[in-house]
Structure formats: structure tokens, C-alpha cells
Write a structure and sequence with these properties.
nine-stranded mixed beta sheet, Elongation Factor Tu (Ef-tu), domain 3, alpha+beta, seven-stranded antiparallel beta sheet
């Protein structure tokens, strides 16, 4: 027979009235590998009642008070001592105090459980993480970007004529000055100056002419720079933050470490929407660029709350969270990280009715990032933004009898950054024409480096408006976006790397399952502890199985178990994949 010992805040107290009927429901929602544990309200009396009410009163006199749960531990004694519950009493949800009968009811929550994690993270914001110093300093980086206007034929024509006229006039003026210098030299060599006087006069005249040429060249160079500032906006810098840095910050705020096997998060950066406007001079030229300064999400951005940060990372890798040894773990739902931790082995039981997971296949699966109406490059550079997988039968007799239907969507509410891969028409003209003039100015020590300034923009992020309204994700290398960034970060890349385990076709129809429900199995404290933190186990037939629901009475010797095994039941399916350009 099992007996239990209950301790509240480290002190042994009277067990709850209904301890023999305590029913623990463990569910593994949305593919989680660690259980959400639900326990109905417990009734605390006698010494337990006193301990809880005194704890609440302590909030009036320097104690923790009602908004911090009371540590609760339940130990079970049978052949050995086993901790079947380690958590706390939640005094803010379902608490009812009956002072006349000296009893109270309250709900309990598992320490470091997913319920607790999901609730605690809801109150966290990116601003809080930054101000409190939780974001590692090395998580921030600079991103080069340029504002590139869409192609305008009229503007291009006007610009071409303007640049050509500007350069031609500059060169003509310098050539005219050179001709005048030569004429002056010939005139000075004739009487009445004489040979020596002519030489001095010529030298002074040439010096004056050269000075005038240099002054003219400088004026032309300044004019060119002014024109360039209008026609070719300067390279700018945003501050971005590594996604892994935000994840570590959330964990740090909650008192945890963070670990993941998804290496993409070390390369992946988050760019907030840009709410800072440019400042211009009285002539309309750019005085100060309005850029993202602190690197964290804005209040209106997806990713501002702690919940959204965790959700974004989870969706990017088909991941699942667990809290193990005071560390938040994030790994792909099908990762070997969870499978290798499995210790429970189900005993042989009587045959149980089963079903197939036919409700998990859809005619179409769509994974898509957002576009930004304020940044036309999220439309022009659309490839990689979405990826669609269609599933249908290979052979059919009656098409109207096919039962595969529906659309499953995974929409990630951030946009992908666009990389500058080539110069636009205006920049090509400027680079070619002014490149020649640049060399001529170099004779006089005047450097514009037009071609270098223009070519330096390649590899930077490009936006059509400085104030993009949707946050972006990007791969970053030395302040620029690498040429293979869409091979790493795109809807297709994410699906192929992280989501194919759900496919009913790929990998030997790996996504097909046989589901067992309401299986009654012998069960005890050790079994419970083995499964609540990792729901993979080996069934009686030696197959890898995964629990989805456990219902257990702590005083009993059985549990009701829902689980599945991966088992193909049809190969008459095909997939078609589509990536819009």
C-alpha cells in the first residue's frame, strides 16, 4: 500500500483530504515531449491550512505573499521513496479559503513544467530584457542596407542626361583652361618680356591657371557628391539582434539557461520594424538617417513579447520546448535528443482498439513568411517567402470519393530580408561615366571613389522605403547578407530541414501512425516520473512509441495511456511541391 508525505515550504504538513483520489492528468499538447500536468483543486486542512494562510499573511510584513507560489512536494512510500510531485501551490487561481472550517482549496503546478513556462513567459517583453541586461552584448550586430527606389523610366532618363551634362561640362571647362594656359605661354615668350621675364610670367600664369582648374574641379566634385546624395542614397546601418540572444535572454529572465541543437539560431538575426524617420536639410538632402538603434523588437512587432519570441523560434525549426535540469531545451520535435532520454517500457497488455491518424494529412500544407506593403522588395524578391506541399493519391478509381482535403497553414509573421545582388540602371550609368571623371580628378588629389561607393552596396540589405513596417529575419555575415542566404533561410529550406517528418510520403511514409487510446497499463510512481519529462518509450512489441496522454491516480497501480507508433498503412500517395518565384 502506498502512503504519502506532503511538505509545504520545507515543512511536513497534513496530507490533502482527497489524497487517495488525486487524479493526475498529463497531456503532451501540440507534439510536446514534456507533459502539461493538470491536478484538480486539492483541499488543505489542519497544519497545511495554517502553513498556507500564514504564508499569505507574510505579504503584509516583508514576506513573499500571495503572488509567489508556495513550494510543495509530495513523496510516495511503497517499496522505495519516490517524489511524485515537485512544484508549488498557486494562490492566484482557484483559491477558496473557508475560515469557519479551517480548510482551503487551491491548485498545484509542477515546478519547471511547461504550464509554468508558458504562463511565466507571457509577462516578458523585449524592452524589459534589454533594460535588465538579459540580452548578451555579443548578440547585437550592424546590418548594412540601402534604400532603393523602384525602377522609374522617366527618372532614369532625366538622371542619365543630367549626369552626362555635368561630367561633360566639367571636362570641357578644364580643357578650355588648359588651352588658355598654352596660349598664355606662347604670348609671354614674345617681346617685350624677354626670355627671363617670359619664363616668370608664364610660370605665374600657369600656377594661377592650375589653381583655377583645381578650384573648378573641386566645385565639380562637390556638385557630383550633391547629385549622388540625391540619386544614389547612402549606405546605412541598422542594429539587429541574434535570435539566439533573445532566446537566452528569455531563459535568463526566468532563471534558466538555454540550449538548442538548432544551429541556425546562431546565424539568424532579427530586425525590428523601423519607426525612426529621416532628418533632411533645408535643401532636401539627407542630414541624419532614421535607423533602428537599439536592435530589439518594437511594441507593435511580432517578437516583442516573450511568448512570441519562443513561438517564432519553435515554428522555424518545428521545435518543442522542455525544461530539464534548470535549462530550457529547444529541439526539433523528432530530434534524437528526446528519444535517447526514454527509459519507460510498456508492459504487455490485452489488445486495444486502434485507429489511424488520417486526420493529420491535408490536401495542402503551406508554410509562409509575411510580406510588407511598405517594402516592395518583399514582393519583387518573393522567392523563398512561401512553400506549398500538396498530397494526393497516386491511383484513383472515383475521384469524388477521395477523402484527402483541407489546407494546413503555418504563417510566420515576419518578412525575409532582400539582398542587393546587382546595381540598378542609374548606378550603372553613374559608375561608368563618373568612373572616368574620377580618374581625372585624381591627378589633382581629389578623390570621390564613385565606383567604390556604389559597389560597396552589393551584399547589403535593400528596402524600397526606409520605414519598413514588418520585422525581418536575415542571415548576417560581417554586416552583410551572404549570397546563399535563401539556401539557409526560406520557407522551402525550413520545410525540407524541419518538417518532412510529418510527411505521409517522405522517409518511408514516416508521418503515418497507428494510434492507441485508453490503454490500461500497470503503472506506478517510477513510471510516472519516467514519462512526464519525456514521452518516448518502447512498447511491448519493441516499437518506438510516444505517449500523448496519461491519466493516473497516485494511490492506484494503473494508468490510462494514449500513445501512437509510426506505422505505414498506405503507399498510394504522392507529393507535389511548389515554390512561387
Amino acid at each position: 500500500m502506498i502512503t504519502i508525505k506532503v511538505s509545504i515550504n520545507g515543512s511536513t504538513v497534513t496530507a490533502p483530504v482527497e489524497w487517495e483520489d488525486i487524479q493526475i492528468l498529463s497531456t503532451f499538447d501540440n507534439g510536446a515531449v514534456q507533459a502539461n500536468i493538470t491536478v484538480e483543486e486539492l483541499t488543505f486542512v489542519l497544519s497545511a491550512y495554517d502553513a498556507i494562510t500564514e504564508y499569505i499573511k507574510s505579504g503584509l510584513d516583508g514576506g513573499n505573499g500571495i503572488f509567489e507560489g508556495i513550494p510543495l512536494q509530495i513523496l510516495a512510500y511503497n517499496d522505495s521513496t519516490t517524489s511524485i510531485f515537485d512544484g508549488y501551490i498557486d494562490l492566484t487561481e482557484g483559491l477558496v479559503i473557508d475560515t469557519a472550517s479551517r480548510k482551503l482549496t487551491a491548485r498545484i503546478k509542477k515546478r519547471n513544467g511547461l504550464n509554468s513556462l508558458e504562463e511565466r513567459v507571457q509577462g516578458i517583453t523585449a524592452r524589459q530584457l534589454l533594460d535588465e541586461g538579459h540580452i548578451p552584448p555579443d548578440s547585437f550586430a550592424s546590418l548594412d542596407y540601402t534604400v532603393v527606389q523602384p525602377f522609374d523610366p522617366l527618372q532614369t532618363a532625366i538622371t542619365s542626361v543630367l549626369i552626362y551634362t555635368l561630367v561633360k561640362d566639367g571636362i570641357d571647362q578644364i580643357e578650355n583652361l588648359t588651352d588658355k594656359t598654352a596660349t598664355t605661354s606662347g604670348f609671354a615668350s614674345s617681346p617685350p618680356f624677354g626670355a627671363v621675364g617670359a619664363a616668370v610670367f608664364t610660370a605665374l600664369t600657369i600656377i594661377a591657371q592650375i589653381a583655377f582648374i583645381v578650384a573648378t574641379a573641386l566645385a565639380v566634385a562637390n556638385l557630383i557628391n550633391s547629385v549622388l546624395a540625391v540619386l544614389i542614397p547612402p549606405k546605412r546601418e541598422h542594429k539587429v539582434v541574434k535570435l539566439s540572444g533573445l532566446l537566452k535572454a528569455v531563459a535568463s529572465k526566468l532563471g534558466y539557461a538555454f540550449n538548442t541543437s538548432e544551429r541556425i539560431f546562431d546565424k539568424l538575426y532579427y530586425l525590428a520594424s523601423n519607426i525612426n524617420v529621416d532628418q533632411a536639410t533645408t535643401t532636401g538632402l539627407l542630414k541624419k538617417a532614421g535607423t533602428v538603434k537599439d536592435g530589439i523588437p518594437n511594441t507593435a512587432d511580432y517578437g516583442y513579447s516573450g511568448t512570441e519570441i519562443l513561438e517564432l523560434a519553435k515554428n522555424l525549426c518545428a521545435g518543442r520546448y522542455s525544461v530539464i535540469d534548470n535549462t530550457i531545451e529547444l529541439h526539433n520535435e523528432n530530434s534524437d535528443f528526446y528519444k535517447r532520454l526514454s527509459t519507460y517500457k510498456a508492459p504487455s497488455v490485452l489488445a486495444t482498439p486502434t485507429r489511424y491518424n488520417t486526420d493529420e494529412v491535408f490536401a495542402n500544407f503551406l508554410l509562409a513568411f509575411s510580406t510588407d506593403p511598405a517594402d516592395l522588395f518583399t514582393l519583387q524578391d518573393f522567392k523563398g517567402t512561401s512553400y506549398q506541399v500538396s498530397t494526393s493519391p497516386i491511383a484513383t478509381t472515383n475521384a469524388d470519393a477521395v477523402t484527402i482535403k483541407g489546407l494546413e497553414e503555418l504563417r510566420i509573421p515576419v518578412a525575409l530580408a532582400s539582398r542587393r545582388t546587382e546595381l540598378n540602371f542609374i548606378e550603372d550609368i553613374v559608375s561608368d561615366i563618373l568612373g572616368v571623371f574620377d580618374g581625372f580628378l585624381g591627378i589633382f588629389g581629389i578623390e570621390i571613389n564613385v565606383q567604390d561607393l556604389i559597389l560597396r552596396r552589393l551584399g547589403a540589405m535593400q528596402v524600397s522605403s526606409n520605414n519598413h513596417t514588418v520585422p525581418k529575419l536575415l542571415i548576417l555575415n560581417n554586416s552583410k547578407i551572404p549570397s546563399n542566404h535563401r539556401d539557409i533561410l526560406s520557407a522551402k529550406a525550413i520545410y525540407e530541414k524541419s518538417y518532412t517528418f510529418k510527411s505521409f510520403v517522405a522517409n518511408g511514409a514516416y508521418g503515418q501512425k497507428r494510434i492507441f487510446s485508453n490503454v490500461r497499463v500497470p503503472f506506478g510512481q517510477n513510471d510516472f516520473n519516467s514519462l512526464i519529462d519525456n514521452n518516448y518509450f518502447i512498447d511491448a512489441e519493441g516499437r518506438e512509441a510516444r505517449a500523448t496522454r496519461i491519466e493516473w491516480n497516485i494511490a492506484g497501480s494503473e494508468a490510462v495511456l494514449d500513445y501512437y507508433v509510426r506505422e505505414p498503412y498506405t503507399f498510394n500517395l504522392k507529393e507535389e511541391k511548389f515554390e512561387p518565384s
